[in-house]
Amino acid sequence: MAVGPLLPRPLAPAAPFASLEVRDLDLLDYADARQEQQRVHDAVVAGTAGPTVLLLQHPSVYTAGPRTAWYDRPVDGTPVVETDRGGRITWHGPGQLVGYPIVRLPDPLDVVAYVRRVEQVLIDVCTEFGLATGRIDGRSGVWVSADDRGPERKIAAIGVRVARSVTLHGFALNCDCDLTAFDRIVPCGIRDAGVTSLSVELNRDVTVAEAQPVIERNLTTLLGLSRDERGS
């Protein structure tokens, strides 16, 4: 499959929440993070909690959405955790900043518009670091354009689920992770593109600790606020 051009996407308005809680969970096992997501999700559904984003890193783990093909998986017996998010197989691990936004979407539900907002958060973050990124038509996530260093390459992956109008799962931004972890799989089922990180593209070490406050500044885009409305 040929990789399409990078295309801009307009934002669609989200529900007008008063505030967004951001929680730093540091390094957390994938199963424990999934349990905490569900706990917060139940509270947001019940109206006892507002929109919340969990930011963390995972110990090294491969996770597979229900669309993952057998040939996308590791062939060396490496364990894979089955999950209910959208998308196919990917890797999480140290050096990758993972975000799980748990927010109520407005009616009528427009999951594509929400994914576009998540992408915009990450595009804006990369812009702050001086890295131009964008979207590829027909593919989720955030991408660096093809150049003399290689083909289009994904710097941030996105996989979401919506249950009872409230989101689960989210995004993973590669900061200074070991990209060889992706060599055992076909990341997101895409064979004709690469995977990269902020550190590789900027030719310097960009840690999760450096990227996290930049992510936090941009998270209100998830609620449909423009940069002007955020006062930034």
Poorly predicted parts: 1-17, 226-232
Radius of gyration: 17 Å
Count of individual helical segments = 4
Number of DSSP E strands: 11
Strand content: 25-35%
Mean pLDDT: 86
- Tell me the span between the first and last alpha carbons: 39 Å
Major sheet details: 8 strands, mixed
Shape: globular
> Based on helices, strands and strand pairing, what is the structural class?
alpha/beta
SSE pattern, N- to C-terminal: EHEEEEEHEEEEEHH
What portion of residues is helical? 10-25%
Could you explain how this protein is built, in words?
The protein has 232 residues and is α/β, with parallel strands linked by helices. Strands 1, 2, 6, 7, 8, 9, 10 and 11 form an eight-stranded mixed beta sheet that branches. Strands 4-3-5 form a three-stranded mixed beta sheet, with no helix packed on it. The longest helix is centred in the middle third of the chain and has 18 residues, at 111-128. Helices cover 22% and strands 26% of the residues. It has helices spanning 30-46, 111-128, 198-202, 208-218, and strands at 21-27, 52-57, 61-64, 81-82, 89-92, 96-102, 134-136, 139-144, 153-163, 166-174, 194-195.
